Amino acid sequence: SLRDYLLTKSNILGATEQERANLLYRGGLQIHTTLDPLMQTQAERARNILPDTSVGFDAAVVSLDTESGAIRAMVGGRGIRKNVPGGEVNMALVPRQTGSSIKSFILAAAYQAGAQPTDIIDGRVPCTVPDWANGKPVDKIVKNGYGEMGPLNGPNTWKSTDCGYIRLSQALGLPRLVDTVYRIAHSTYFYAGQPTSERVPFQPIGLLATGNNVMAPIDMASGMQTIMNKGLHHDPYYVQWIDRADGTRFFSHVDQGVQVLDEGPALNTVATLKGVIRAGTGARNLRNFPRPAAGKTGTQFENTNAWFVGGTPQLTTAVWVGDPNGYTPMNGIPEFRKEMGRNGKVQGADYPARIWGGFMEAALAPMPEVDWPAPPKASRVPARIFVPGEECPAKLVSGTLPPMYSTSSTSSTSTTSTLPTSSSTPTESSGPTTTGPAAVVAPITGYTTVPPDVLDPRAPMPSVDLLTYVYLCQTPPTNVVVQKKGK
């Protein structure tokens, strides 16, 4: 990886590949890398938590210094594999579908756009996903999966709701979200405008939030490093300095970094992702992780790729598990079933989280325990983020509305027609009532989606206060009558 980086991904040694090769092989250089031999050994040992299988499932690990982006450990898999053309592939650099681990970047983009941790998204199914078929725009309906109405810093993130994050990504604007992902995870391996001959671009697809785009472990580690480092991004790098044969300095790495996220949004993202480890999908194997840490699981459709990506103020690490030779479902795998149960079904919370925890606990052992600063206090009351066109805000004309939310101050779901005050913290709703007098509502117009040409990361998303009634435009509750325009 270092050799390939110096020859094809960097101009440190010269402007052309021939110049670089001449200097690398004949220049008598002493190259001081960022790799930590002990951490590399610890990463290889952690990778071996994954048992050998007849299919050949493997794991990749990339760990970066959170403050600088220096690559401390990189494990691309077991190494040379039998009966595979080329024999050896570094899976740490191979793009694969990310599953829900991409939601950490969506969350960061939402906070950067002005969202607050107590803002509400609707994670309930069904939800509408804009897509394409036969060259024409179509709508897909997601009808399965977990979901609830609730805050960003809550189960919608911790339990990784698809509809909640599909709606959040649409509210953000997909082109703007793509731009943010490229900036948050930037490196010589991943950047906007990269030739398609080099890799498939990250695209503004409807199912972006479910991880249908591809990113490599080094990309995921790079993006998470930005979040863990309070929004200051550093490109991952291998070389600290290079000396000539006579001992004089030829090159020293210098990178002041780029503040991709404001510190407040980054710290809000960290605080929310801490909940993934403490009470969410990552808790299965990381609940007792001994240090302050934040991260996100990811599991692709049919369990073909599984991820855990997260970090501490000192180290940021991405772990991928899957079949290097294809998108093979990790379901019913005999070796996995024997070792961990769960019918041999691998998710991000399983082997990826275990590998991440095993490596991070060992690598961090000599370091002092450090936590992030507290995130900023909310600057306003909670709001309801919504997607114009799919979700319709409305005002009450007559009758009694069914409840939209229950409040955290009550132990049971509210059954009254009273909406929460704007200072309350909404949680899961019991759903609309189906009896009683109909409420008549009038749609509130004027809300639009974020235009595709708006890439400003701070541009606000469509939102209303919590007292505004919001319903699915195509399927309003049975006891809510929507007043037609002009009435």
Overview of this protein structure:
The structure is a single chain. This protein is 24% helix and 21% strand. With 487 residues, the chain is α+β, with helices and mostly antiparallel strands. The radius of gyration is 24 Å and the shape is globular. The termini are far apart. The model is unreliable at 406-434 (pLDDT under 50).
Number of helices: 12
Rough shape? globular
What's the gyration radius in Å?
24 Å
Helicity level = 10-25%
Strand content: 15-25%
What would you call the structural class? Answer: alpha+beta
Distance between the termini: 67 Å
Q: Which ranges are low-confidence, i.e. pLDDT below 50, for 5 or more consecutive residues?
A: 406-434
| Average of pLDDT | 90
What is the β-strand count?
Answer: 22
Which SSEs are present, and which pair or pack?
Elements: H1 2-9, H2 17-26, E1 30-33, H3 37-47, E2 58-65, E3 71-75, E4 96-97, H4 103-112, E5 120-122, E6 127-133, E7 136-142, E8 149-151, H5 155-158, H6 162-172, H7 174-184, E9 214-215, H8 217-228, E10 232-233, E11 239-243, E12 249-252, E13 258-259, H9 263-279, H10 283-286, E14 294-299, E15 305-311, E16 315-322, H11 334-340, H12 351-364, E17 383-385, E18 391-398, E19 439-443, E20 463-465, E21 469-472, E22 480-482
Parallel strand pairs: 19-22
Antiparallel strand pairs: 1-11, 2-3, 2-16, 4-9, 5-8, 6-7, 10-13, 11-12, 14-15, 15-16, 17-20, 18-19, 18-21
Helix pairs in contact: 3-12, 4-6, 4-9
